Amino acid sequence: QLPGVFKTEVGYTGGHTKNPTYREICSGITGHYEALRVVYDPTKISFEKLTKFFFEIHDPTERDGQGPDRGQQYLSVIFYYNDEQKKTAAKLIHVLEDLGYHIATSLLPVSQFWRAEEDHQDYYEKTGKLPYCHRYEKKFL
After folding, report:
1. How do residues 34-89 score in pLDDT, each as one tens digit?
2. For 136, left (φ over 0), alpha (ψ -120 to 50), or beta?
3. Strand pairing report for 33-40 and 65-66
4. CB distance 95 to 140 below 8 Å
5. Alpha-carbon span 132 to 123, nearest angstrom
6. Which secondary structure element, helix H or strand E, spans residue 1, and what is its range?
7. Which of 6, 29, 38, 62 has the smallest CB count inside 10 Å?
8. Max CA-CA distance within the chain?
9. Is 132 within 8 Å of 67 (Cβ atoms)?
10. Is 0.85 topped by the overall pTM?
């Protein structure tokens, strides 16, 4: 929904199993995280602005999941492609910590991304359910 974002895609990354399924990642045996791949135009929206939005639409202080979803696969993680992205994300974490937040978000290098099953893509549009882990909260001044 942000100007400059072309596409988002739900999937799994960071684990050791090839082409994992939702059931497998929920079992905890694959080491994957549920993730969102964001394809964007950096001339229209910056990595920093996307990362700020990420921090403002979920609770980056939760250490064992998000909302009612618990487990390693639901942890808050930013996967970075290069040192510049890593530094930007680390700087924003530092800003939030200076504001009193105890950030649990990890920073990890990008690894193989496996697209999730079709029923997980555009989940809320397909089901008509309301998001229960995501809510907007302005965190940056």
Report:
1. 999 999 999 999 999 999 999 999 999 999 988 778 888 989 999 999 999 999 99
2. beta
3. unpaired
4. yes
5. 12
6. none
7. 6
8. 41
9. yes
10. yes
